[in-house]
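As a warm-up, study this chain.
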Amino acid sequence: MKDQTTSTIEERVVYESGNEMAAYAAYQINYHIMGYYPISPSTEVAQFLDLMKANGQHDIKLIPADGEHSSAGICYGASTAGGRVFNATSANGYMYMLEQMPVQSGTRFPMVMNLVCRSVSGPLNIHGDHSDLYFALNTGWPILLCRDPQAVYDMNLMAIKLAEDPEVRLPVMVAYDGYFTSHQKRRVTTFANVEDVRAYVGEQPVKGFADTLDRNNPITVGPYMNEPDYINNCYQQSMAMYKAGEVFDRIRKEYAKLTGRDYPVLDLYRMEDAEVAVFLLNSSAEIIKDVVDQLRSEGIKAGSISPNIIRPFPAKEIAEALKHVKAVTVGDRADSYGGHGGNMVNEIKSALMTHGVHEPMVISRIYGLGGKDFYAEDGHAFFQYALDAVQKGYVEKPFDYHGHTPGDPNHAPKRVIEPLKLEDLKTGLIKVTPNEETGKLNVRIPPLRNLTRKPKRIAPGHGACPGCGIFSGLEMFFKGIEGDIVTLFHTGCAMVVTTGYPYSSHKATYIHNLFQNGSATLSGVVEMFWERKRRGELDHLNLSDDFTFVMVTGDGGMDIGMGPAIGAALRNHKMIILEYDNEGYMNTGAQMSYSTPLGHRTSTSNIGSVQKGKAFHHKDTAQIMAATHIPYVFTGCEANPQDLVKKAAKAQWYAQHEGLVYGKILITCPLNWLSDEKEGTAIIQAAVDSCFFPLYEVEQGITSITYNPEEKNKRIPLSDWLKKMGKTRHLTKPENEASLKAFEEEVERRWNILKAKNENPYL
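Now compare it with the structure written out below.
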């Protein structure tokens, strides 16, 4: 790709992935701020930066947001304050922050964001295509493309110069393919010295532009704007976008002189005399080159085109490259539903028409969705579409999908497990009766062995890790629920390991929605149930009892989903929100969540010479939800099964008669807690006995501790719990004494507050 002798700076060769190179470039630039939120496959960028931070390799301030929308806000605020800002995201994470993208570009504040391209659900798919990238096309951000880890590194260095150029002043996106480029390692040549990188990108802040931290020049950012000012603002932004194309061309030439690596607006391969061509973005564009060579060896004049920038769209250059081509197949890794082709094919058709190029026949094919691989044989098929058009003199099928398979009625999903019988689910052994004197509920449950005949709500055969505490905790809770349930699961470990189409481990009706919208979604289901029941539309079902509606959340769902949960609580829908707390975002690789306690190690709160785990205390979601004044809030765990079953029975009564219930159960995660899978129950019991995870309930606003380890002479030091997990053993070492003491003091403070509430019904 490059002649080493043409480089004018000292370089070194590494063997790394695209995500590693995005993080490496950010470290060398030494951004001021990165606001981030974990989502696969972009999560690694923040993880690598945090690991470097833990060892003192950079001083970028990494700010873990409570969701992608907030991470975008953090980045926007930081950019208005005059420093360099960085972010990375994917798919639905990008969709969640989408509303913020035009805010940043419309007010002309630079930053760099890596979009690690992935399918936008639903249904949920975490693998690579360009459906998120295509949503970015109208946000006003210049977009650079990367087909391999080398390009990820180089484009990240050029992106900050492009963003900050006085003629541009726009936030810039660097896009590369999830898992194909993000995780696959390649040989990459980098700047050897950070001093050379910082000399190349230039000093910061760029002089001549105001920021919100200049007290001598106060400014107003993002004022309300009427016409004609608004259209004038948009016109200036549009002109800056087109100028970004010219500036990128200048920057890439400067970079080529410095490194010998060049990224022209279009990567043209053997297009000089090509009669048939294929147009592709990113990683597929490298594979197609081998196909071009094979066809050339057979005497077929084939060529390929791939842009290095698609905003601004290189319309004139594409028209010039295709003016002598007889037919071109355009591959789109996402569909523009109803548009008779993806975004790229329609923009290419527009470019050809605009610039008076009428000869090429254009074939549109949607391919590679949801991480479907693109092989050389697919490339040959793409060329064959073009060759067939040339032979026939017309395009037989202008638009189609490539790689899909026809449905076969013989392979339609079949029910394996019959619906659960109501008589099996409603044992009559659990009695819940209101106490008119206290205003609370009296609960009577049988010995737990008598409830073992109740069928499990989730079938065996799910894909959870050995020792995972989610399903033992959930099933223990469900033992206290009588009758039929409808469950909604947020995205997370519990959802992913129980639903892999065409299979499902759920015996009862199940719904999925994303972290940030589960509470709202289930509240819609609940209200539709009651309204249809009121109208008599469900009479044919002969419902002897009402459904119990349960939303299951975890893996950080009460960070990004906290707002909708509070909204559902304030509306007081008749449903249960049950949080399984595994103290992190385990479904994306054990990143830090707000429920992660102080000092605990995660993949984004690493342990190193200058960083000792999470830097702030854990969020008490049960107390937050209690502050919304819903009828019932509780904590529980499988280590105290009678307590949990009683609380489940209460939760069901309140959810069917009065309104919303919130419950939080602590569950073990051996894989990421670095603990023995056989010790899960003992570890959870230690968390309870150390008073880190107290068992209590808030019923009609009155707090009651339901298990007090002090009264039972079972309280243990917090360190006894911490010693049981690899993620926390470092806290028991002498050098971390201050962190351990701060953690102990916070646990004691919260425990004493809880005891005070237990003693005084007005607290």
